[in-house]
Structures are given as structure tokens and as C-alpha cells.
DNA sequence: TACCGTAGCGCAATCGATTGCGCGATGGGA
DNA sequence: TCCCATCGCGCAATCGATTGCGCTACGGTA
């Protein structure tokens, strides 16, 4: 049941040496005479000894564990990000604990607090509601943080999308097809960082002579339901848009479904463009035109930055991952 | 930088009491005089003290962390399972570390070993290649294990699908539509537990007078690519099947794409049926008929069983989650 | 006055590792 | 023969909590 587990002193006794020697055999940090080394290894094998990493962490102050704090791991985008992060951390023998916040500020804070309590070695976070000062405690504890988001507190390492060019191309494409009124299903209102994707579309619309009036910007969560709801709202306007840009593919898929229910023909009645290019985007019909953001690569990049930081890198880094317009059947 | 963090003895000094008292104020396990209690609380607040859970774990031998060991968190099925598990563990303040094995036996063993090294409080695992004795070390360490799989080592808690009825209905439905030759895209060959889903289809085919010849059973991984490849193999047989059952939805989607490329009409030339009902299943066109397995619920059930075990439940439990046939457009 | 139960608190051992420091043995050079 | 550098090893402190045990003070009862 609650087996007494084998400790280093058990091994030491069995091998006829001190725990010091056992420790050094295991870590290889100091030379040990061949006969003792072998005696230790034999004892380790026979007793089935396993280093207790909790005790090790207490002593060394390194837990070899990092946290990934995201709104929802069941969202394929974050699942992909998680995978990238984990694959990057694995070779260094780091574990990743996944934390779902449901895009709730209280949960974000709770998890951040947990990180310092548990003395984790680092955090990758896609914050939804956090202000720079919310990171003070983590920073004070000396715990490295990498933010994965379009924008974040200016002092932390950041991995973001560089969608400038792709959005410009997307809008140019829509303009070429004769669209004049653009609508947008944007992210939630009140986010501390504003809504960078909305700003990109706004600027691009200006450049290409499209109209993106305030009345055609709908705020909502990053979900299918919100996308569907948003589309219905947009299409019930006096002057509905002929093209809609969506903050991500989930909302775009929701919008697609709602449009279908309304009997709208895509793309002839209405063009839709998503963001991220998650697996679903190429599987729905009509296939979703979107702006591809390499989530897996974003995750592994976060991992790389985190490892660098843990290893002691000093300066801040910011990596902008290039996105790419993928034209399919909804535009 | 590497901030000296505040410990209980710092708090004790500031509050003019012993660490013992601080500990008891924090845990509430012993009565403490109001004035001292307040002094401690004040000191905690002023110093920004946070309990070091590593030290706590060492002392109490509980890490409040469990592992989830699955082939791939980027697979929506497992992502959903993970979410269910996490939601179940969260109220008890447990963390979940997610481990991807890529369905590789060596990785499975490595992670299992890690679990005991890190003295985690429990494991949920969907093993692909593990035999009962591979769990000996974990068992010896007294660490609770819950298996999420169609079948598993008979001695461990198990959460599985009960697809008997649904598969029977699916096959009956195919028979009713006049199908006679059934093919199957099954799981990898050589799994220690055999392939329960294949067996279900085999039995049901017998009952309903369908042919499921050995030549029409293709083994492969649980991926889209394997599904596509498998379909091509099946359709190049002398006598190809008119209906194919797939081990899960990912392979079914792969098969669907391959069928489309071959110019096959679904469902008139070929019927397809999947398993799990992941989000994609209802989004592809034609929409995939499938057998719905509630992955989220499976995850939360695993969490519940794990918590019971941690709390001391003795007997083994096995939960069979009822699956349900969902007929859409591929049959 | 003597005795005893109880509430409040602290000492010190303990969990299982890591590591600075120093000690003894060995051997090469003068 | 003597000295000192080098190698191998162990003692004991330390990381930051938890908790068994025992001590003091206080108040009620006989």
C-alpha cells in the first residue's frame, strides 16, 4: 500500500558507502573509485532506488517543471501550442503542467500565484486580462515568463504573430473581388492590450479603400457560438457587410454555420476569412480561407525562449512568427 | 533576479512567534490565540509570504499533482479528455502534467518512471503498449492509476467505452442498407490488449450476416494519414468493401479525403463509419456517421476515480461509458 | 490549599536529497 | 627521508516546511 520508498541512505548502507558517495555516483559530479561506483550501481538496481525529485527540488530550487496557462486546452489551437511547447521541453527533461483559465482573470491570477508557490521554473502564458503589474510577484520570484499573444507586457519575452502583411493581402484580395463593406467578428471588449487584429484590419481597410464602420464590428469570445451569434447580429444590420474577417477560425466556423442556416451562399453572398488555420479550417465546406499561424511552432519557440531564460539569458526577446494568407473557398 | 524568497521563519520572526505557530495559523489545524493569529497574518501579508509547496510535498509526501499520459495532446480526442480531467481535479487544487508518448512504448515507460520519481499523487493513462507488469513500480510506490482505454490491466481502475450496443446498431443499419462486405480500418497490430473495437465489429457482422473477411482488415495508426492509406489499400482489393468501419474519427476523416480523391461517392459507392464523434466529425462534408464517445466525460470520470483512490478507496472500479450511434451522411 | 484538565505554544526531529569543507592515503619530486 | 599535490571520500549543514511531545499558565473543583 503505502510502500516505504527506498532512499539514498538505504542505498548507501547496502553499498557500504556514505550518501555523499551515492549522490556523486548518481550525478557524476565528482570522481568515484570504480569499485565503489559499481557497488552503488548494484545497490541502486537491486533496491529499485529512484531519486526523489521533490527532495532534490527543495535542495536545488529547480523543479524541472513549467506551467502553460491558456484559456482552454480543448481548443485545438492551444492544444497544438501545448504540443509544440512540450516537444521543446522534453529533451531537457522538463514537465509541463497545463492550466485552463477559461479566459477568466481570476483564474489567470490564481494560476500565476500557484506558479510561485510551487516554485516552477517558468511559465508560458496567453494572458487575456492581465496587466503588467500582475506579473510582479512572478518576476520578484525570479521566474521566467514567456508570453504567447499578439501583444503583451512590454518587459516580458514575447512570441507573437506578425500578421501585418497577411492581413494586408487578405484585404487587398477582398477589395479586388469588389467588396466594399467589411465587417469583423473581433475579440472580447475591454482587453487590456486592445485588439491588435482588429487594428490590422482597420488599417488595411483604409489602405485598400474598404469601409469597416464601427457598427460592423462585433465583440465576442473566441468560440463557435460567439461566431454564430456575431454573424446573425451583423447580417441583421440595415446595411450588412459583404465580407467578414474573424478573429480566429473557431468564430469563423461558427459564422459559417450560422450563414448556412440563414441561407446565405458563401462566398457569393458573403465572404469569410478566419485566422490561425487550425485543422478544421481545411475540413469544413466550403473550405475556410484563413491566415495561417503556426501554433505548434509558436509553442516550441516559447519553449526555446524559456529554456534560454532558465539558462540565464538576460535581454528581452520578442519573436514575430510570420503568418501567411491561405485562400480557400470562402472568399 | 534570484530573489531570496520569504520563508516561514521570516514570518515567525516578524510576528514574534515560532514557525510552529505560523504553520498552525496557516493550516488551521490547531487553535492559536487571536492576537498571535493576527500578528502572523499581518506578517504574511506584509512580507508577501507564500508557502513553498516543494518543502510541503517533501514533508507530507503529497504533491497535489497528477500525470496524464496520452499519445498526443494535439489530438482533439485527448485534448477533450484532458480538459475533463483537469476540470475534475481543479476543485481539489490538483495540477495535471500532460505527457505525450506518441504511442511509443519507450516513452510510456519513461513517463511512468518519472511519475514515481516525482512522487506524483496519481496517473491517468491511455496505454498503447504496456503490459500489466509494467505498472509494478508505480503500484509498489502506492501511486493510484486510472486507465482510460477500451481495455486494460485487469487490476487497475478502468474507464472505458461500452460500444457493444452502438456497434451492433451500426452494423444492423449497414445490413439494412444492403451492405454485404464490410471492411475495417483497425488499430495497430500487436497491441497487448488486442483490438476490442475490431472484435465488436466482427461479432456484430456475424450476427447480422455481413462479411468481414481478414483480407479487408487493415491495421494502422490512429491518424488521418493512416486512414487515407488504409482506404486506398482496401479499395484496391479484388473485391473491395462497400462499407468501412474506422477505429476512430481521425482515420475516418483521412479515409473520407482519400475516397474523395479516388472519385468515390459517399455514401452511395462506399459507406463510412467512425468512432468518438470529435468536433470535426460533424464539420466535414459529407458529415461523418460515427459512434459517439464522451471524451470530456471520460476525463472527468477518470478524475473522480483518481480522487476517490487518493482519498483511500480500496476496491477496483470500472466505469463503462455508454456510446451512442450518430447517423449522419456517410452511411 | 492541593490537584488536575485544558488551552496555547515551542523545541527539535524529520522528510530525502546536495554540497562546502576538511581529512587521510598515495605517490612523485627534491 | 620529507614535503606537498592530488585523489577519494565522508561529516554535517542546509533547503522549508510538518508535527509529536512536552512545558507553562490558568481556572475550576474538592
From TrEMBL, chains A, B:
Has UniProt tagged this entry with the keyword DNA damage?
A: no
- Asked if the Swiss-Prot or TrEMBL record annotates the protein with the keyword DNA-binding, the reply is yes
Xref: PROSITE patterns:
HTH_LACI_1, HTH_LACI_2
Q: Which GO terms describe its molecular function?
A: DNA-binding transcription factor activity; transcription cis-regulatory region binding
Q: Which domain of life is it from?
A: Bacteria
**Annotated InterPro entries:** HTH_LacI (IPR000843), LacI/GalR-like_sensor (IPR046335), Lambda_DNA-bd_dom_sf (IPR010982), Peripla_BP_I (IPR028082)
What's a Pfam family this protein contains? LacI
Keywords assigned: DNA-binding, Transcription, Transcription regulation
The HTH lacI-type domain covers which part of the protein?
6-60
Full protein name: LacI family transcriptional regulator
Amino acid at each position: 500500500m503505502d510502500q516505504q520508498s527506498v532512499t539514498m541512505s538505504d542505498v548507501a548502507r547496502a553499498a557500504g558507502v556514505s550518501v555523499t558517495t551515492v549522490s556523486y555516483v548518481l550525478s557524476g559530479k565528482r570522481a568515484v573509485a570504480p569499485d565503489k561506483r559499481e557497488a552503488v550501481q548494484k545497490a541502486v538496481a537491486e533496491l529499485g532506488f529512484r531519486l526523489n525529485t521533490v527532495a532534490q527540488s527543495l535542495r536545488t530550487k529547480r523543479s524541472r517543471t513549467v506551467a502553460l496557462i491558456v484559456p482552454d486546452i480543448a481548443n485545438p489551437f492551444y492544444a497544438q501550442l501545448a504540443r509544440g511547447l512540450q516537444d521543446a521541453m522534453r529533451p531537457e527533461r522538463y514537465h509541463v503542467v497545463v492550466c485552463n483559465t477559461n479566459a477568466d482573470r481570476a483564474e489567470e491570477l490564481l494560476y500565476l500565484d500557484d506558479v510561485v508557490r510551487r516554485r516552477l521554473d517558468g511559465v508560458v502564458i496567453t494572458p487575456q486580462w492581465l496587466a503588467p503589474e500582475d506579473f510582479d510577484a512572478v518576476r520578484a520570484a525570479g521566474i521566467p515568463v514567456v508570453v504567447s499573444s499578439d501583444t503583451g507586457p512590454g518587459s516580458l519575452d514575447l512570441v507573437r504573430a506578425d500578421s501585418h502583411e497577411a492581413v494586408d493581402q487578405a484585404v487587398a484580395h477582398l477589395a479586388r473581388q469588389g467588396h466594399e463593406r467589411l465587417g469583423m467578428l473581433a475579440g472580447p471588449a475591454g482587453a487590456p492590450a486592445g485588439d491588435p487584429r482588429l487594428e490590422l484590419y482597420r488599417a488595411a481597410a483604409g489602405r485598400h479603400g474598404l469601409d469597416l464602420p464601427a457598427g460592423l464590428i462585433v465583440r465576442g469570445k473566441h468560440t463557435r457560438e460567439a461566431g454564430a451569434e456575431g454573424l446573425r447580429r451583423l447580417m441583421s444590420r440595415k446595411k450588412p457587410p459583404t465580407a467578414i474577417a474573424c478573429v480566429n477560425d473557431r468564430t469563423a466556423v461558427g459564422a459559417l454555420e450560422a450563414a448556412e442556416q440563414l441561407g446565405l451562399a458563401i462566398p457569393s453572398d458573403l465572404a469569410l476569412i478566419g485566422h490561425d488555420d487550425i485543422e478544421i479550417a481545411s475540413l469544413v465546406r466550403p473550405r475556410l480561407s484563413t491566415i495561417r499561424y503556426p501554433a505548434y511552432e509558436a509553442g516550441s519557440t516559447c519553449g526555446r525562449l524559456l529554456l534560454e531564460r532558465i539558462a540565464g539569458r538576460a535581454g528581452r526577446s520578442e519573436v514575430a512568427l510570420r503568418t501567411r494568407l491561405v485562400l480557400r473557398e470562402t472568399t
